[in-house]
Amino acid sequence: MSAVEKMTPAETRLARVSLPDGFGPQRRAALERLNAMGLPGRRDEYWRWTNPTDFIAPDPVPAAPFSDDEPEIFGEIDRLKIVFRDGVFDAEASDELAMSGVEILRLADAPDVNWASSLYGTLEANGQDPVKRPFAALNTASATDGVLIRVTGAAEKPVSLIYTHESETSDPILHHLVKLEEGAEITVLENGPAGARFNKLMEVDVAKGAKFHHIRVQGRDHERRAVTSIFTRVAEEGLFKSFTLTSNGVLTRNECVIDIVGDDANAHVAGAALGDGKTGKFHHDDTVFITHGAERGESRQVFKKVLKNGAEGIFQGKILVKPGAQKTDGYQISQSLLLDENSQFLAKPELEIYADDVQCSHGSTTGAIDETALFYLRSRGVPEEEATALLVLSFVADAIEEIEEERFRDAILTRLEGWLARHRG
Amino acid sequence: MLDIKNLHVKLEEEDKQILKGVNLSVESGKVHAIMGPNGSGKSTLSYVLSGRDGYEVTEGEAHLNDTDLLDSEPEERAAAGLFLAFQYPVEIPGVGNMTFLRTALNAQRKARGEEEISAGDFLKLVRGKAKSLKIDADMLKRPVNVGFSGGEKKRNEILQMAILEPKMCILDETDSGLDVDAMRLVAEGVNALRDEGRSFLVITHYQRLLDHIKPDVVHIMADGRIIETGGPELALEVEKNGYADLLAKHGISEVMA
Questions:
Q1: Which pairs with CB-CB distance under 8 Å and at least 24 residues apart come from B129-134?
Q2: Reported pTM
Q3: B81-105 tens-digit pLDDT
Q4: What's the mean pLDDT in A223-234?
Q5: N or C: which terminal CB in chain A sees fewer CB atoms within 10 Å?
Q6: Distance from CA of B92 to the nearest CA of A (A)
Q7: How far apart are CA A302 and CA A310, in angstroms?
Q8: In the A/B pair of chains, how many CB contacts fall below 8 A?
């Protein structure tokens, strides 16, 4: 028997990691971190409810691309388009990577620029303590493509990252950087399934008074799997806002690690997930860690999950308030709407507070459709299925409200209504 | 219009008989009022007629013209022309009042085989009706009943009634929680809808609403039955003397009622 045959899937995966060109020291450090922590097992506290096997496997489970009859969600929005086909930048389908107040580079070009070198892997490395995030370290070490965005003013339009999926076995690893200089502002849009198995990481550095808006729609591919991470550092008076809509997908793990380092900063992260086990297994996991390390910071976590036909939803959200982070205002709500008795929602809210003058609250609920509201709608002539759809929209409304601009809210609502129309009964 | 015969209803969850043989006929164009002490079954009657879950009809029947109400889904009853103005209108966060009204109207039209109303016509319709009920643009834009005062919620019920144009309107204690001015506004809204082809069943504890919405017939309900039927003077008599004499006359102890 050869040595290779004795290796576990995790060992094989680690042995196969190769480091692409560029950011050599950062990639090598990430690989060292990864080898030291290893890939997760079911015994890891933060992987108890989500089975990491398919993320660990040396090769992805093949996933048939999903032919989508819906128009692209942000198609009507004036934006700078950047397209990745199965994780590879598609210059032809993309706009020119130029916009006033914004510098955009490609990771695959291995650019040697100071700002990118000092950011690449830095926030990810900082976010490895106290909870290990092996797939993020794996990403930093081996990401093959991505965009490096530096914003110096108010971006004239949103940057729209579009991930198409064509190959049944694509296994893309993308790593993006977004660096907002003092007072800068940008909106980053993301949509599409990207591949059979997608590992994506975004490091967002928000300088003093800068504003970052993020609206993401994870693809409708029924068979896709994705593990994504956002690491952000928010300086004084900075704003970080992220919203994610997930519909379908066998397995999704979205991690968001937020570090509030400057006074009077704001960080909001929200998500709405819709899962119907009838069109394939659905397991969705939101894992959030927010650290308040400065005074008068405000953070909000608003997560809503609508689950039916055996769909599974997970929420793990933590607020850590460091000593001295006085007047922190932390809020967290995670809720699920179970449309039948076969679906499941598990939530683990955590608060850890070392300052004495703070306001932190958390809540988690699981429930069925409100019968009184359903009757009210039906008594007005609205058929049961349509009434249920309206109540689902009502349920996720708080999360969608976290999106500031109406045009994006409308785009998300249209997509939600489409999902509801397809998943009645 | 509305015909109820020997209606017996019990709660599904517990073996408790609430309605014990209700007989009631409301003719087209008439306003009937039902008064009665707490626990007499007034609200139950309104819920059973509109199809709320949790009740079991053990005997009797109820028809709205040719529609067998007890055999229809709530939305079918609505499309057939039944409307219940709720005692406690429900808040629906995240769903705009306009969206709600339009969804309801179009659903009913569709069920009746009519064309959906265009966005422009709908807007015109709502604005006209809202104005007379002093419902402003903001209330129309806000989520259904969310952050509405008691009076606003009741006015919103009447607005729905005005837009859906039902044949048979049941008002379940629409006066509860209203001050005098709000009650007058609501009553005016109802009176504006009075029509040859439309009937009302007004459920109330108090005579004062009936000063504003003048009934043709007044029923007194107690212990799950209608025990007295008369003209408007019956309401005045109850207002003056309470229910005690009437209950005693029909051998119903007050404790039981």
A1: B129/B159, B129/B162, B129/B163, B130/B159, B132/B188, B132/B189, B132/B192, B133/B158, B133/B159, B133/B162, B133/B185, B133/B189, B134/B185
A2: 0.90
A3: 999 999 999 999 989 999 999 999 9
A4: 96
A5: N
A6: 7
A7: 23
A8: 84
Q: Give me the residue from A372, A381, A397 closest to B107, CB to CB.
A: A381
Is the CB of B117 inside 8 Å of chain A's CB atoms? Answer: no
Chain A interface includes B51 (CB < 8 A):
yes
User: What's residue B257's pLDDT?
Assistant: 42
Task: Give the chain A residue whose CA is nearest to the CA of B51.
Answer: A379
| B2-94+166-249 CATH choice from 3.40.50.300, 3.40.50.2300, 1.20.120.140, 2.60.120.1440 | 3.40.50.300
Which residues in chain A touch residue B105, judged by CB atoms under 8 angstroms apart? 381
Per DSSP, A181 falls in state P
A318-357 pLDDT tens trace: 999 999 999 999 999 999 999 999 999 999 999 999 999 9
Q: Which residues in chain B are contacts of A302 at CB distance < 8 A?
A: none
DSSP state letter for A109 = G
Q: Strand A147-151 and strand A102-106: pairing?
A: antiparallel
Which helix (H) or strand (E) is A292 found in, with range? strand A283-292
Half-sphere exposure of A60 (CA within 13 A, CB side): 24
Contact check, Cβ <8 Å, B107/A386 = yes
pLDDT digits (tens, 9 = 90+) for A92-110: 999 999 999 999 999 999 9
What is the C-alpha to C-alpha distance for residues B38 and B119, in angstroms, rounded to an integer?
44
Tell me which chain A residues have a C-beta less than 8 angstroms from the C-beta of B78.
Answer: 378-381
Whether B115 has its CB under 8 Å from any CB of chain A: the answer is no
Q: Do B107 and A395 touch (CB under 8 A)?
A: no
Task: For residue B117, give how far its alpha carbon lies from the nearest alpha carbon of chain A (Å).
Answer: 15
* Span B159-185, pLDDT tens digits: 999 999 999 999 999 888 888 888 888
Q: Mind listing the pLDDT tens digit for each residue in A120-170?
A: 999 999 999 999 999 999 999 999 999 999 999 999 999 999 999 999 999
Report the range of poorest mean pLDDT among A82-96, A201-215, A318-332, B151-165: B151-165
